[in-house]
Amino acid sequence: IHGNSWLTLPHGLREYAMFIAPRPSLVTVSHPLTGVMLMETRIMGGGTLTLDGPERGGLAAYVIQGRDA
After folding, report:
1. 29, 35 Cβ separation under 8 angstroms
2. CB–CB of 25/65 below 8 Å?
3. Predicted TM-score of the model (pTM)
4. Which DSSP symbol is given to 34?
5. Can you count the helices (H) and strands (E) in the chain?
6. What is the mean pLDDT of residues 6-34?
7. N or C: more exposed end of the chain, with fewer CB within 10 A?
8. End-to-end CA distance of the chain
9. Closest-CA residue to 6 (of 18, 23, 40)
10. Cα(41)–Cα(56) distance, rounded to whole angstroms?
11. How far, in Å, CA of 31 to CA of 24, rounded?
């Protein structure tokens, strides 16, 4: 957390990960190796964002960036 923005890097996901927003946020989810934006959404404080693991085995990783909405 830095000022009005934050960053988290969930990795090693097999099935899914659920993120709970600490405050109302504009969130972008990107692929950690390519930088391709996978999703952009607004989440209310206490709201959840669920990220799925890979469909065919292996592990998934994401870069999640947020800022106050």
Report:
1. no
2. no
3. 0.85
4. T
5. 0, 8
6. 92
7. N
8. 15
9. 23
10. 26
11. 23
